[in-house]
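Progress against Task 2.4 (sequence-to-structure conversion) is shown through the following example record, which the project officer requested during the mid-term review.
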Amino acid sequence: MRSAGGARPAYDPAGHDGALRAALQELRAGRWMSMRTLLEQTTTWWQWTQRTQVLAAAAAGTDVVRAWRAEEPHSVAAAVMHARVAVERALRAHREDHRRTRELWREGWHASDTATRVAPHDPVPWVCLLALARLDGERHWAQHRVAPPEPMLPPGPWGLLAQAAERDPYNREAHHRMLQFLYPRDASGRLAGAAGFAQWAAGSAPPGSALHVLPLYVRVERYRRSGGRDAALDLHWVSEDATREADQAFHSWFTLTHRAERSLLDLNHLAHALWGALRFREAAQVFDALGPYCTPLPWACRAPGANGPDRAVEVFLQARTRSRSAAREGGRRP
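Structure tokens generated for the chain above:
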């Protein structure tokens, strides 16, 4: 689906998932029945993980999930959503350096730990515990400094990742939570540990897995930490490694999946990487798959300053226009 001409894209957490969008509207109005129905109808772990995450982000500032649990105290889905919401609140408090961070962290941990027993086959409670691991900055908890499966990888919450993978191999969010744990532990800006992890995960993932996109996130984070100092010639994006990562993600993930299997964030990171690598024909295909949607990242890393959000959309539009124009004229342009 192609956005009309130069139509301005919008951010929508539901993306192409119309059923999720409808449930979000009901949730924001204080009603939980549509959320319950949506989760009952969710049949894949990928969609379950994605939908519970988006719903929790919307529910974290409300009492909707608490009301659901009060009405249906034995609901497994409500218990998982309770864990999701508790973790989302703890992460927000951490980002804001709120005085209740430790208290909310404990609440999130207990809710997630309970959910691992209530929903023993569900990867999401383990994803929640992985998400909370980043709050343990000094790695006081033994489960956050487990030896890695490969000698060149850093220690971390590998046991939690293994639990999530046992229930849903190559779970996308679990691996992103692992990246978020590793980022703060490399003050050099090179992100060697995170980059090694992303390459390891992508290298072991089967065709069609979203883990093939992971290295693109590390490249954006590295660029962001550099302050965009190499932006003049954009050599960061056209290097041999960057081009190889973009090509790998396109051919090993994008061309092998359908729209319902792709997250907006992954599509935006791939479009950004292909545009940066001058792979305009491939980038145009990804922009077409995005349709009317975009996400603030990674475009915001090219648009620092007070007008970052608006400027990020402008960068997206420039990249989309350039890619489509170049694709029509022959695919690549030096």
